[in-house]
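Re: the 172-residue chain
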Amino acid sequence: MLAWLDGRRGLLDAVVFSGGEPTAQSGLADAMRAVRAKGFAVGLHTGGIYPRRLAEVVGLVDWVGLDVKAPIAAYVGVTGVASSGLAAFASLDLLQRAGVPLEIRTTVHPVLILSVPSEAPAARPPARARAGRRASPGAAAPADGGRARCGSRRPRAAPPWRRAARTAGSRS
């Protein structure tokens, strides 16, 4: 694969690690370093199910696409895995704190997702994870290029998934 990339210099800007769950692969960090050494940017598609493994590679990525399956209260209904929502939202928090350019994607399933009451506190993502600002057509671009984080900078209590993960002593 690395030899193939040599022939793609000037044609490709980046390599995105995806398919299955890349953070499940023990050689991910080494592969990312090798790709970066060849001059390519590095992207990652992940479901965030292994936050500790994600933490090991977060400094090697230029962009992350995070698949958030559901509001945290509905995660187990979508994935069938207890506490999977805690891992995914811990990964979201890690990526936001790291400042990595991030795209959050989700699929809305009308039966699995819409049955979660939107008023339930645990079903709502933190303010900074909600949809960002949208400028009206013709508006001037923000001075920061639109990269400012949403939400408040005021100190706040740890989010529920971080509190629960700490309490449960979960490991990825």
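Helices lie at 2-6, 28-37, 51-57, 75-79, 84-98, 160-168.
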